[in-house]
């Protein structure tokens, strides 16, 4: 059985226009892949297809050897696929810690029903540097903490594949530094976690991901080791809109 994620010939069409056109790539188990591309290139559409919110017109998504086509969005989490959203979707009436604990209710059946103490909600909040807000409501916490709380909630479901949709969007420079530290902490504690990171901050992506996949107008224009992809002429053109001596490398 192949572990990790395999995306084969995915096509997603809105009103006759391909938001994704025959996109194929794979992410090996434990690999962190950055999915980048200009505005409107199809990154969020890809995450929505992977998480089952959108049904593709063609193609398949295979995770750890299982074809997810017939698996509904809400059941994919029990198969080990978890995600965050660009704008954190936390329950307003629950504390940050209570929100994080909600993730434990969606652990895969193969996992212990309740996480070990070393993987408790409080422990993840501490690792991600936001434990001081554990008992606060989301509205009382900084935006960066709300975004990290959503990541912690996703981790509580014990995913083998985590999809992060623009975790740095809306964060201050300081919060971005904290985010990178928090994500590195996740890698330290979950070395087998496979991660797909959608993000506009290419420097941040390059500091975390060993591989990149680049979308442009719904097509995959590059995929491979981070530094190789960033040196690719087609990638520079997609980002800068012109062939030039400027460097897309952060
Ligand atoms: N629900 C939808 N209905 C119609 N068109 C859509 C829908 N979602 C996305 N699109 C279109 O699909 C294309 C890809 O959009 P998508 O949001 O996936 O791009 P993106 O790379 O995530 O962009 P951004 O970086 O700005 O978030 C765009 O042309 C967009 O207008």
From TrEMBL:
GO terms for molecular function: ATP binding; ATP hydrolysis activity. The lineage of its organism: Bacteria, Bacillati, Actinomycetota, Actinomycetes, Nakamurellales. It comes from the Bacteria. This is ABC transporter ATP-binding protein. The keyword Ligase does not apply. GO terms for cellular component: plasma membrane. Coiled coil: none annotated. InterPro entries: AAA+_ATPase (IPR003593), ABC_AA/LPS_Transport (IPR051120), ABC_transporter-like_ATP-bd (IPR003439), P-loop_NTPase (IPR027417). Pfam families: ABC_tran (PF00005).
